[in-house]
Model the fold of this input.
Amino acid sequence: MQGIYEAAALALRYWFMFAAVIILFGVAGISIKEYKDKRYVMNVAQSSIGYLSVISGPKDIIGENVPLMEINLLGRSKRCDIMFADRSVYKEHAKIHKALSGAVYLERLDKGDISISGRNVENRARLYSMDILCIGNVVTEVHLKEDE
Done:
């Protein structure tokens, strides 16, 4: 009986150190994950050419800022870089890309509705900061780095 009492007393004496070590490893793991996530976000922000701010469309994306990379495929398909889950958006609706000159262009890929600040886009049009881009029923505001 004495041995069980001594084993229980020893366990209770050192349980705090054991718990502290577990908490320390947990905090270190979370910190490392947050650091990696922050590095990823900073790399995306530095390599992006700007972003689209969603004004209207599917409720789950209103208010989001979607980063624009050098080449972006926009549409409803999961293969697209920027996906808008709205029936008015074609599977591969448009492409936004940065030309060698530094200008940013939008190219129509399907017959769906596309307008920039109220002007219908037939094939290709240049994008500027503060343009209102409508792809089907999804309305976004364009923000480009070189113009800001």
